[in-house]
Amino acid sequence: MPKQVINNVAGATPPLPVFSHAVISNGHVYVSGSIGSDEEYNIVGGVQQQARAALDNMKAILEGAGSGLEHIVKVTVYLTNMVRDFGIFNEVYAEMWERCLRGRALVLRPCPWEQFVEVECIAELAPGDEE
């Protein structure tokens, strides 16, 4: 089955020219990394605000691709500071999903600017939206 590139999703920060918002392949949506920025790529606030912006952006991309948060299989979270950021990020993350747990990985990585959070995910297409 051919891959479908998802770009320019309404309500999502536009992707940079070197990648797409997401790719649909074999009934799954692979969402590119979302950072905590506004639509003009300005980093917003601290960890809590960035986490919320990144997760809201990921949600908009999923919905634009015919999926949604409820169809996520796995989330990868990138943080710059485990001690400072982990608990704060988890509080915001828990607001998105009450008790429905997903697979998740955490990667610690440095960043040259005040970007503290990035998230990406793999989700299934909503039933009836399969390729």
TrEMBL record:
UniProt xrefs under InterPro entries: RutC-like_sf, YjgF/YER057c/UK114
Q: Where does the source fall among the domains of life?
A: Eukaryota
List the signal peptide residues.
none
Can you cite an annotated GO cellular component?
cytosol
Recorded hits in Gene3D superfamilies, A to Z, give:
RutC-like (3.30.1330.40)
The family database entries (Pfam families) matched by this protein are listed as:
Ribonuc_L-PSP (PF01042)
Question: Which Gene Ontology terms cover its molecular function?
Answer: deaminase activity
- Hey, which family's this protein in? Belongs to the RutC family.
Protein known as: YjgF-like protein
